[in-house]
From TrEMBL:
GO terms for biological process: DNA integration. It comes from the Bacteria. This is Integrase catalytic domain-containing protein. InterPro entries: HTH-like_dom, Integrase_cat-core, RNaseH-like_sf, RNaseH_sf, Transpos_IS3, Transposase_IS3/IS150/IS904. It comes from Gemmata obscuriglobus. Residues 102-271 form the Integrase catalytic domain. GO terms for molecular function: nucleic acid binding.
Length: 275
């Protein structure tokens, strides 16, 4: 082999007995750190978020280095699957106008909420999930799950958000945004918003960008959790989804819209600077 590769035997033996250089040792340590973080977040991060997480732990490096380590180690973030539409906007119910600009900055907590509905597959059948997200902190503040897509589903998610965030105070100045689905256009949901003084606004027909924040959350939920699961029962799915939202998404997961900061950390910093 030395003859074929035109390498001297003495050079080969010297290379084999040589200690690992300091640079190579540092690279191996950094590679192990990246692998450990990737395993810790259950393969939910790509190179940008892995880089942000590593930097937050006091380990400076470039995002390109993290991407290279991932390629060499054969690790990657979970990928999304084909989108399936669940919103039924072909109804005769009245819809609210759209005023929540896509580029608008919510600025303050509890001034812009976004609500949405999706479905989760289980061996028992579909499990329907409705959530409410505070756009200022990208935090899920209300949620509800049911085996049927009833009108109560979205109202229960709203009630949870009202109890947790408004705590009996007025919702004046708060805009609640949703798609044009029949569940959000029905009288019960509209009445509760009006009772709390909350302004209701809906996406324009056929414009998915108006509802991008909520679609982004559902994409993350399914890519990072649901698509790798085979839920036997709806109860199993409920427990898994609650754990993902409460212990990972709301507290740990870094969000690009917040500068790659987790919602919980962003909220703590906000509260400290606005006392």
């Amino acid at each position: 082999m030395c003859r074929v590769l035109e390498v001297s035997r003495s050079g080969l033996y010297a290379w084999r007995s040589r200690d690992v250089s300091a640079a190579e040792q540092r690279r191996e340590e950094r590679t192990e750190e990246v692998k450990a973080i990737h395993a810790e977040v259950k393969a939910r991060y790509g190179s940008p978020r892995l880089h942000a997480e590593r930097v937050s732990r006091g380990h400076a490096c470039s995002v390109n280095f993290v991407a290279q380590v991932m390629r060499e180690a054969g690790i990657a973030a979970r990928t999304k699957r084909t989108f399936r539409q669940t919103t039924d906007s072909n109804h005769g119910l009245p819809v609210a106008p759209h005023v929540l600009a896509r580029a608008s900055d919510p600025g303050e907590p509890n001034t812009r909420w976004c609500a949405g509905l999706t479905h989760i597959p289980t061996r028992e059948g579909w499990l329907y999930l409705a959530v409410v997200e505070d756009l200022c902190r990208r935090r899920i503040v209300g949620g509800s799950m049911s085996e049927t897509m009833t009108r109560r589903l979205v109202v229960d998610a709203l009630e949870m958000a009202l109890a947790a965030r408004l705590q009996g105070s007025s919702g004046a100045g708060l805009v609640a945004h949703s798609d044009r689905g029949s569940q959000y256009a029905r009288a019960h949901d509209q009445r509760r918003l009006k009772e709390e003084g909350i302004t209701c606004r809906m996406s324009r027909r056929g414009n998915c960008w108006d509802h991008a924040a909520m679609e982004s959350f559902f994409a993350s939920l399914k890519k990072e959790l649901v698509h790798d699961q085979d839920y036997v029962t709806r109860a199993e799915a409920k427990a898994s989804i609650v754990e993902y939202i409460e212990t990972f998404y709301n507290r740990v997961r870094r969000h690009s819209a917040l500068g790659d900061v987790a919602p919980g950390e962003y909220e703590r910093t906000y509260n400290q600077t606005h006392r």
